[in-house]
Amino acid sequence: MRPPQAMEGPAAAATLQPPGPEEPALPGRGPETSSGGGSGGGGSEDNRDQSVTKSTRPTVGWVHKGPMESATAARADTGAALRLGSIRPTAGTPLGQMVAYPTDLTLTLLAMRRRSRRPDPELQQALRARLRLLENDTREVAHVLGELSARLLSIHSDQDQIVVTFKTFEEIWKFSTYHALGFIPHCLENLLVDQAFWLRAPEDEEETAVEVCLEEETLRLMHESLLMQEGSYFVLCPDHGVRAATGPRGAGRGPQGGAASEVDSRTPSPSASAEEVVAAAPELLTPFHQWALRVPWDPVEDSVEEPVAPGLAMTAGGLAAAVADCEGSVPEEMTFQVGDLIQILGARVPGLPWCLGQHESSGQVGFVRMRHLSLEGQPELENVIFLNEEERAFFSNEGHFSEEDAKQLLRRTSEPDVCTTYSLDRLEEAKFEQPEEHEMPPLCLNPEPSETLEKVKNVLEQCKSRQACPEEPVSWGLHPVASRVSSLDTKEEPSFRLDVEADWTDDAEALGSMLLSLNAPGYEARFRGLYTLSLPGLGSLADEEQLAGRLAQARGTAKRAGLPMALARLCLLLGQLCVRKLKLSQARVYFEEALGALGGHFGDLPLVVAVYTRLAAIYLKQKNREKCAMTVDKALALLLGTPSHVGSTEAELLRLALQRAVRVQSAGAEARACFLLAQHHTRFKQLEEALPFLERLLLLQGRLGPLATAWPTDGYLLLADIYGRKCLPHLALSCVRVASLRARGSLASALRSMDLVLCHAPRLHGLRQAAPSLPAQLTPYLWQALTSPAARTEQTLRAALYASLAQVHSHHGQYSRAISLMIRAVDAGAMASARSVVDRLVALAWLHILHGQSTVALHILESIGDAAVASEDQEGVVANIMAVALRRTGRTRRAAEGYYRALRVARRRGRQHDQAVVLANFGVLCLHAGAERLAEHYLVEATKLFARLPSAECGCDFTQVLLRLGHLYAGRALAEQTRSCYEWAFLVAVETGHFKSQLCAVQRLCHFYSSVLPNEAQCVIYHEFQLSLARRMADKALEGQLLDTISQLYLSLGTERAYKSALDYTKRSLGIFIDLRKKEKEAHAWLQAGKIYYILQQHELVDLYIQVAQNAALYTGDPHVGLELFEAAGDIFFNGNQEREKAVSFYQDRALPLAVATGNQEAELRLCNKLVALLAELESPQEGLEFAHVALALSITLGDRLNERVAYHRLAALHHRLGHGELAEHFYLKALSLCSSPLEFDEETLYYVKVYLVLGDIIFYDLKDPFDAAGYYQLALAAAVDLGNKKAQLKIYTRLATIYHNFLVDREKSLFFYQKARAFATELNVRRINLSPDPYYGRIAWLASGPPS
């Protein structure tokens, strides 16, 4: 049963009524409904996550749709569409007023065209069919939804819906994030659509996509319900303050965790307007904000002297004017007058009281209170998130794709094995092609063969003319070498090292030189290593105590010498050492000394940031409220407002900065904090911790407007890499797809996307383990790379991309499209090296062979040979493929010569695999020519060579050779050799892990053990393995067929246990046929189940299953299917031993009229024969006469002499039973007249014996003519003597002796027949022969005792 639907909105929640009949039944097409969510009046849109908005729209983030009415007519039938869960306050209703929460969420799948926004019926039907298959086996759907943090409840394929639920706050938070980022549709695309969906070119018809619609209000209410269950949550109050609340009536506590201020949950007065009610209701924060605020509350008393208006934009840089006088209380704070101009350094962060500025006239740098400044102008969002080029390049540096990486990737995707190794010719791949026939290329895709050959010759001429010129390397504009090292850690940057191992006591000059170097007034790149916790520049001392002592000595010297910057840097190092040893108080002293030594000097800004952040982190850990109030805000202003700095930043400070941004609802500050947190965790390889911040950053970027920049693409690709490392392949590929659709990409991003697809696409098939080596999902990114500026100008790159596209299409069987793309690759790569040109031409020729155009392939290969530009190994490949094409066009002699040339090249180069392939091709050629013995020799030699190779080098070629050899042995009835070859092929296929080869080998073994050497047990075993392969390859049609076959195998075993197993397999096949909408097979499966129930004598279910089978057959509308099924239903009872009379109804009333209506005379004859036999057994010979005459007429019409003889015989038998002796005699004689002469088989002679015996009985007993009866008996005797049947002779001699003794009164003949009978009786050990009339005679008047009347 389907679970009740989730609540659709506040109105439904309040009334608890099912949707009315007037509501629209089509999802996603209803009118707009009002959203009754209770939002705080005046609240900024920035604090709302896209996943918790109040309108329903597709998950695809760049498409905006109207709300969806999900109350369909089908759901109206279920009654109340509300699942009662916990109790909630409705939107716009005080928290004390309660209604029920929804507990499930419905996802509706829509197939849409991207540009026109119109539905795509074809794709919609494909989605529905796929959902139907998954409805009974939900493992794959549950797995994908598990990646999306949702729990599957049910699938409703008829409505294109999936129902999910959530159990924890974390689940709904993650799902909401994926929904807002647009990942959900692409995850389901990878699950529901086939590979052809991705293979469309940009010039094809309009691109289609899968969209997922869900009820946003339901998602919001489920989020609210889970928060209520957890007990504590955060709300945005009407005064724009964020408060913590517990339960519907719980008291809140202020942002700083001080005295709790109660969240107003009082019931509004009845006179309050709806607007007042909505404005008075606190609004729940989004899931991410709920999670972000769960960190320990800010221990600092609210340092913002005045309320901060929500939603203020974060500003970066710019000139500000002072609006008040200010006297700095500490050296770090700036002193200025009203009207002074101050240049903001970095950014001004809402929610923080301080920012860093520089006085325009005096040049002083220091902290400035933001309330004293007036800013002009608003910068772009990108300039708020990233404050310098180093930050802007962070994502690209983290995952950049080098030129060497790109070349390796394209070599993997564009160079097929056919260019480097010999290819095996398969006899069954293509039909014999006549050489004189002209092959027609596909219309509108490929040029004419003459144009193709002209292009090939031109390319080869250019290649030949450039053969002496060396090829100049061309750059693609990517990084020259592969590197995963961030720009912060490049080796070119100088590094400062302290010589702490020197004896500074004796060598004061060395110490002084070092201190002078450390006393540099500004920041230098060589100081970078000093500001990190890893301390890379402190020499090689293993004893940190000794190291601390040397640094303390240097500190003292710097202090005495009055070197403040050296003192500050040394104190920073000493403090970091203390932090590592968890000596926080001592570290605090060092950091405070470093801050004092700086004295308000900001020349080395990274040093100031490092000191402030470390000192603030210690104050937070020690919960020093007074010191925190003086330090934390300034540290946060430095972190968020100045460019990223070297060194390790305490994550809790950044989390506190994020918390401040959430409180003031500043999207810019939140994005900046999320970037810094993602950067921090990524640099320290804490990818799990970086994930939520990177997701939120990309979400904010999408919400606040698209940017003409590449960083979002790099961010999405980094996110995809993190998902992949977490074994979330669907999310990884969805992230890559969203990156290509939403953000501006580059060649590097397209190639990196391909790399991620190749890495993670095979994991999509985790449940079935059969994944394509070149997934179709590569296609969009290859086309994207082709549109890049580098691909437009660099022909070598363009050629590689086109060749890669051709290989992807070829891998998925689209040879026509692959040929077109490979021609483009050849054309674009005309100026490449000779080897590359020849390789692509060889690949093009092979594609033509696979497409059945061997003549075109021959011309291409001959052109390569005439140009003489191929290397020796390429000549062998060309000779082998040319021989394959020659064999397919019937030129056997030239093919043999080509194979011989290829074999010589392979032997010269020592390529054992290629030698084996050529020998196998020789065997195929010999089979084609009819020389089986010679073919066996070559195939055996190839097998010997393959057997010496490692299995990894054999590939699937060894399996194919063994299967071909086994087929050859099977044709010669060599069962043992056949079995050995097939089983060896199966073992090789299993070892290499090639699923298609395993399937071929198992299919041959199944046929062998069912037909060649029948073995029921082995047959069942291999069919079971074939079934497991079909499941792993997701071939539902093959799976259903195999289940049906296995059911038949178990049924043939004839035991009760086997019958039950057969029933189980039949029901499983039935489920698949129902899902596939194969009504004919479904009908036969229902009937098969009914037959098994009949055998198991569960008669109460037999009629039910047969009736459903009839309904399924009638649903097809095909009378031939109905005829076949009705006859099969009758056969169940006809071939059984119970309730046989039911067969008459199926034959006579249902199947026979269909046979007459369709003009199927063979079926009509067959049914009439069955009815005649059945009615005779049911003691209804009179009814059978009509069908016997029809059968006779049909037999004569069809010219079927055997059925005609059968019809005459059955007519005779029926008339005999009805007492029509003369008619019976007539029809028996007609049957005998149709027998072949002379008699060929003993069975025919035996038939004569029986029929003449019956004729004798009819004449003697029914027609009262002993004389004629004696004649028929003698004819029967002649046949029995000819047959040598002694029992029949004994019987006939006895009857003749009786007739001649009692009726014809011929003593001599009577005695003769009696003696013959006695002799056979003695021989057969029959003790007594009775010559008196049979007791039956007494019932015949003319044979009764006494005188005649």
Automatic annotation (TrEMBL):
InterPro entries: SH3-like_dom_sf, SH3_domain, SH3TC1/SH3TC2, TPR-like_helical_dom_sf, TPR_rpt. Keywords: SH3 domain. Residues 315-378 form the SH3 domain. The keyword Phosphoprotein does not apply. Residues 1-71, 246-274 are annotated as: Disordered. Residues 35-44 have a biased composition (Gly residues). PANTHER family: SH3 DOMAIN AND TETRATRICOPEPTIDE REPEAT-CONTAINING PROTEIN 1, SH3 DOMAIN AND TETRATRICOPEPTIDE REPEATS CONTAINING PROTEIN. This is SH3 domain and tetratricopeptide repeat-containing protein 1. The lineage of its organism: Eukaryota, Metazoa, Chordata, Craniata, Vertebrata. The gene is SH3TC1.
